[in-house]
Amino acid sequence: MDAIILQILNGLDKGSAYALIALGLTLIFGTLGVVNFAHGALFMIGAFCAVTMQRLLSLSYEEIDPTRTDFLGNPLKVEVPYVEHWFGPDLGGAIVDWSVPLGILLAIPVMIGLGFAMERGLIKHFYKRPHADQILVTFGLAIVLQEIIKYFFGANPIQTGAPSAFSGSFDFGTLLGFDPNVIIYPYWRMVYFLFSLVIIGGVFAFLQFTTFGMVVRAGMADRETVGLLGIDIDRRFTLMFGLAAAVAGLAGVMYTPILAPNYHMGMDFLVLSFVVVVVGGMGSLPGAVLAGFLLGILQSFASMNEVKSLIPGIDQVIIYLVAIVILLTRPRGLMGRKGVMED
Amino acid sequence: MTKSTLTRRGVIKTGAYAGAGLALPTIFTSRARAFTNAPSGNTVTFGFNVPQTGPYADEGLDELRAQELAVEHLNGMGDGGMLNTFSSKALDGTGILGKQVEYVTGDTQTKSDAARASAKAMIEKDGVVMINGGSSSGVAVAVQGLCQEAGIIFMAGLTHSNDTTGKDRKKNGFRHFFNAYMSGAALAPVLEKAYGTDRRAYHLTADYTWGYTQQESIQASTEAIGWETVNNVLTPVGAGDFSSYIAPVLNSGADVLVLNHYGGDMINSITQAVQFGLRDKQVNGKQFEIVVPLYSELMAEGAGDNIKGVYGSMNWNWQLSDPGTKAFVKSFGEKYGRPPSNSAHTCYVQTLLYADAVARAGSFDPCAVAEALEGFEFDGMGNGPVLYRAEDHQCFKDVLVMKGKENPSTKYDILEIVEVTPVDHVTYPPDHPMFGGAEATLGQCNNGA
Question: What is this structure's pTM?
Answer without folding.
Answer: 0.84
